[in-house]
Amino acid sequence: MTRRLLHLAFVCAWTAPALAYSHFGTGVGTARVHWTETPVRWLATDRGAPGVTSSVFQTTLARAFTTWQDVPTASIEFVFAGFTAAEPFDEDGLSVIGFQAHPEMDRVLGATTFLYDDETGELIEADIFFNSTFEWSAAAAGDPDRFDLESVAVHEIGHFLGLGHSAIGETEIRPEGGRRVLGSGAVMFPISLGRGSIVDRELQPDDVAGVSDLYPDGNFENATGGVRGRVRRGTGPAKGAHVIVFNPRSGELIGGFALGDDGGFQILGLTPGPYVVRVEPLDDADIDSFFTLDDVDIDFLVTYYPRLVVAPSGGVGDSVDVTVRPK
Amino acid sequence: MKPLAICCVFAVFVVSADARAQGPPRRASSADPHVELSVGAGFLGGSSLGTADADLRGRSNQPFQLFETSSRIRGSVPLEVRLGFLLGPRYVFEIRGAWSRPELETSVTGDAEAAPPVTVVERVDQYSLDLGVLVNLRRARSGSIVPFISGGAGYVGAVHEGLTLLESGIGFRGGGGLKYPLVMQRRGRIKGAGIRADAALIVMTSGLAAENGGTRQVTASGSLYLSF
Amino acid sequence: MLKVKVATALSAALVCAAGASICATTLVPADFAQMARESELIVRGTVVNVQSQMIGPRQTIESVITLSVADTMKGPAGGQTVFRVPGGRVGRYRRVMLGAPEFTTGDEVILFLKGRAPAIAMPYGLSQGVYRVARRAGGAVVTPAVAAAAGRVVRGDPSRRPLDPETFARQVQLALAGPSVQPPVRRAVPRDR
To answer: Of A85, A88, A216, B76, which sees the most CB atoms within 10 A?
Structure first.
């Protein structure tokens, strides 16, 4: 069988380690990955799951791709290249999206993977699987007893684009067991809102900033700005701190992580103006779902920077030092 | 556009009313002053810039409040310079410039993780340059003190800390005041000097202004003026 | 052996160095007690070997990790245990599953493992069952912190601090012995600074 190659091109953007792992830059080593050739081709496994035919599966995915494609400040295009008998995770050079049964991953609704040539750095394929161990729905209004396929698809396609997880979200542990999300500030928050919820079909400002930063359209870079700084606890860095910036005028809430060895962070794609800066520890989180970092500091209290920090137009403001209060 | 319309209607009313109240205009002479320069300082009141909640999205789209904010621009002391072109004894065409350094503050409360309330601030440089008209209400004078009304519109800009961002908008000004001449002479380059007090309402419709209805600030100032 | 032609003259190089995972899954997480109950094996140890391989009829890449066990908190005690995670490198090809934890020789970890023989166990919830032990001047700490009590999980909660491995082990025993979710505990008063 002739294997059709998927011509994928990822640009290796070398940046200083402190800046390489913003929440909207999936990083491998110190490289940030994104598609450089568009439209990006994807295939769908010609097999559905209970409640979702393969045809409905494809149309739902197409809507999810369109959600990202329609971001006005980003320039990315996708094209459906057809159905295939190939499966996600087959090492076949095809970017395939499909259902697979993974009962051993009974806490994972879906996942995205990349296969690349470790010697040349060339990306060969990117795949997404949806775990058919769960019950899925593609109903327009959702199904209270099933997970919404389109919502999870929008999330996984965000990873397919090169976005990492956002940590903007609040959870609770239920008395009857299990953990549920009370609210999230991004579709790219790693925990599902639960059966029946369809709100994650729509992107939030954090998602839009992320995809626009990866695939800027037109005047995006000149029209937006960034804030940067370091998070410190005492005399040392508070590595792995979660930084959220809020624009009181526009209501935008956008996050990033202090991943630099010095606790450095940088958040881009912001509407120019003054921002409230809030820092919190990831002491409630499965940190491995966000990044892998040595010496993550979670031993401090939520702290606000005492001054408004300005994101200029077309640039990044002066660095600020946020000193957090220890627990 | 509403504040501009109000200012225009107000100006037309006052000018026409004043014209009806006066007798035939006195012919101007070369001994009369033509230009007036004033420099002064005063107080520019603060103003609310509105409230905003930092909300997360719940499973049914209901908001989950992470924290809430309330922003305002604090009062400040502006420096003002005016250049007036006297169009007779009654009307003055004015160019007004002002500069002040108010603080922009945002109060953060209601943090979902019980962080204590905090007020975060930033100092901005606020500039304005407007064109307007001043009408001396000579019929209402009391001795040498002449009341007046004035209005104008123009540019308002704010430069954020570190010269990182300039925000600009349109400001409308309406108010009045009193003039008291200290010296008047018909010879020499300086024809007169005096003091004036102004009070006005300034409405900004963009830039730092709040989203709905603009930002309103009250200003009062005292100046020394020279007539040429 | 991968039978994949690599396209030429199309893409800029993506040089991928080890050392940072790319994390991307959608999760339905369990609480700590649930995870403890549903895991077959809970151990603390040090990674001594990471072996990637192609498996199954479709030759998917996964990694098999050997752990030298220092402490067993649940399940059969043993000197070593083996578990697997999706992804890894075979030959020149590397597969990365976003959200799957990555391990290198020398990593000290606490693992909640699920899966019975003949299957090779996997970390619970892919990455949820992975806790990392960092050795610092003041002692060893386990991250992430344990959120066990019912109710809002408040970030920055002063009462939730990184635990040393021994205290973490006691938390595991508490979770195994107690009700499904512990009742809310009174939060510690923030210390004056």
So the answer is: A88
Question: Measured in Å, how far apart are chain C's first and last C-alpha atoms?
Answer: 60
Q: Tokens 């953060």 identify what position?
A: B108
Q: Do B56 and A278 touch (CB under 8 A)?
A: no
| Amino acid identity, position A140 | A
Question: Is A1 among the domain residues?
Answer: no
Amino acid, single-letter form, for residue B72? R
Cis peptide leading into C183, omega within 30 of 0? no
Find, in chain A, the residue whose alpha carbon is nearest to that of B111.
A302
Using one digit for the tens of pLDDT, what is the confidence trace for C141-162? 888 878 767 888 999 998 888 8
Q: Which two tokens stand for residue A97?
A: 């999206």
Is the pLDDT confidence value at A23 over 70? no
ipTM score: 0.87
Structural domains in chain C, CATH included, are 32-177 (2.40.50.120)
Cβ contact (<8 Å) for C154 and B114? Answer: yes
In terms of residue numbers, what domain contains A288? Answer: 224-323
Residue B58 in any domain: the answer is no
Residue B9: domain span = 2-15+34-47+74-227
**Predicted pLDDT of residue B164:** 74
**pLDDT, tens digit (0-9, with 9 covering 90-100), for C86-115:** 999 999 888 888 778 889 999 999 999 998
| Residues B60, A185: C-beta atoms closer than 8 Å | no
pTM of the model: 0.84
For residue B9, give the CATH number of its domain: 2.40.160.20
Residues A165 and A199 in one domain: yes
What pLDDT sits at residue A253? 96
Whether residue B215 lies inside any domain: the answer is yes
Measured between beta carbons, the chain B residues lying within 8 angstroms of C189 are: none
